[in-house]
Specification:
single chain; 216 residues; mainly alpha; globular
């Protein structure tokens, strides 16, 4: 387990974190002498400016610690027990949860304050783009899967999207297998639970306001 933790980037804090999250596009004073069309096009660079706020640092801390806590649970005795329980549920037998979801959290705020940008930067700094490889047994662990809540709030669509992203990143065939077998929502829940147990550290579900919009 120690070797797995070493594959994660070191957690950064303070001024180092601020510098890593800060984004200031390059500025060329000569643009002031350019024609109107060139100057207007250069204004788009303003969209690349990002100055981190205390919210950004909190999001990074939450993301990193959630990944770390999840990694520590991989290939443990409790993880094996949870896998057995997932199999029992797939067979229609009595089922008990072993691993809890205490590491879950929500990021709530008005649109346009930089939540998605802070989230993307936090995931990148926490190692969200680097697959962790385990040995004995061999497995590919994806640090983060980022999906959007479907506009129609389809649970099945969300579960299939998670599997599709895992297949794309880890070169597996979970999505194809479940679609070919026309898996029910109950079976998909078990499959995603098992895939997350073995191959995912963190699942981010964006655009959750779609749930509120579709409530009747």
């Amino acid at each position: 387990m120690k070797n797995l933790i070493l594959q994660m980037p070191k957690m950064i804090m303070g001024e180092e974190l601020e510098a890593a999250m800060l984004s200031l596009p390059p500025y060329d004073p000569a643009i002031c002498q350019a024609d109107a069309a060139t100057r207007l096009m250069a204004l788009n660079d303003i969209m690349g400016i990002y100055v981190p706020s205390p919210m950004s640092y909190e999001i990074y801390s939450k993301i990193y610690l959630a990944m770390l806590h999840s990694l520590k649970k991989k290939q443990t005795i409790d993880a094996v027990k949870q896998g057995n329980q997932n199999y029992r549920r797939l067979q229609g037998l009595s089922y008990n949860s072993v691993l809890g979801g205490a590491d879950s959290f929500s990021i709530i705020g008005p649109s346009g304050i930089g939540k998605s940008t802070a989230l993307a930067k936090s995931i990148s700094l926490a190692g969200g783009e680097d697959i962790i490889i385990t040995r004995e047994p061999f497995a590919k662990i994806i640090p983060c899967i980022n999906v959007q809540c479907p506009h129609d709030c389809s649970v099945k669509g969300l579960l299939l999207e998670i599997l599709l992203q895992v297949d794309t990143i880890a070169n597996t065939q979970f999505h194809q297998h479940e679609v070919r077998n026309r898996a029910s929502i109950d079976n998909l829940i078990v499959t995603v639970s098992q895939v997350a147990l073995n191959n995912i550290l963190l699942i981010v579900i964006d655009e959750c306001q779609n749930v509120c919009r579709n409530q009747k």
